[in-house]
Design goal:
The protein is an alpha+beta fold and 136 residues long. The chain has helices at 10-14, 18-27, 42-48, 58-65, 80-88, 101-105, 120-130, and strands spanning 2-8, 31-38, 70-77, 114-116. It binds cytidine-5'-diphosphate and magnesium ion.
Length: 136
C-alpha cells in the first residue's frame, strides 16, 4: 500500500471540479484517507515547491496556489503514486491524453488543476507538509 498527496489547485475548486476529480480517484479503487479545503499560506506553498525555487515559473505557481482555496487529499492504495500521476496526465495539458484530468479539463500549464506527488520520497515529504498532524 502506498500513500500520496493530491492538491486540487484554485482553478479546480473555482470550476467546481472537486467532486469530479475526487470521484475519479475513488472509482479507480483508491481510498481518500485525508481531505481538507484550505487557503494555503505562502510559506507552505514555497516549501511544497522547494525543488522549483530557481525556476522561472516559481513565483507564478506560488502566487497561483495561494490565490484561492485548494483541496488537499491524502490518497491510499496499491501503486497509488503512479496510478494518480497517470490519471492526472502530463504537466502541460496540451500533451495530456484525453481521459486524464488535465487532458479532459485543462488547457494551460499555469492552470493544470492538480498536483500529485512524483515518487515515494516526495509523497512522504508532501503528506507531512500538508497533513502535519497525520490525521490519516
Ligand atoms: O505538477 P507536475 O509535477 O506535473 O509538474 P512540475 O514540473 O513539478 O511543475 C510544478 C507546477 O509548476 C506545474 O504543475 C505547473 O503548475 C507549474 N509549471 C508552470 O507553470 N510552468 C512550467 N513551465 C512548468 C511548471
Ligand atoms: Mg512535480
Amino acid at each position: 500500500m502506498e500513500k500520496t498527496l493530491v492538491l486540487i489547485k484554485p482553478g479546480g475548486v473555482q470550476r467546481n471540479l472537486i467532486g469530479e476529480i475526487t470521484a475519479r480517484i475513488e472509482r479507480r479503487g483508491l481510498k481518500v484517507v485525508g481531505l481538507k479545503l484550505i487557503h494555503a499560506d505562502r510559506e507552505t506553498v514555497e516549501a511544497h515547491y522547494d525543488e522549483h525555487r530557481e525556476r522561472p515559473f516559481f513565483g507564478g505557481v506560488v502566487s497561483y496556489l495561494t490565490s484561492g482555496p485548494i483541496v488537499a487529499l491524502a490518497i491510499e492504495g496499491e501503486n497509488a503514486i503512479k496510478a494518480i500521476r497517470a490519471m492526472m496526465g502530463a504537466t502541460n495539458p496540451i500533451d495530456a491524453n484525453p481521459g486524464t484530468v488535465r487532458g479532459d479539463f485543462a488547457l494551460s500549464i499555469e492552470d493544470n488543476l492538480t498536483h500529485s506527488s512524483s515518487d515515494p520520497e516526495a509523497a512522504e515529504r508532501e503528506l507531512g507538509l500538508w497533513f502535519p498532524t497525520g490525521t490519516f
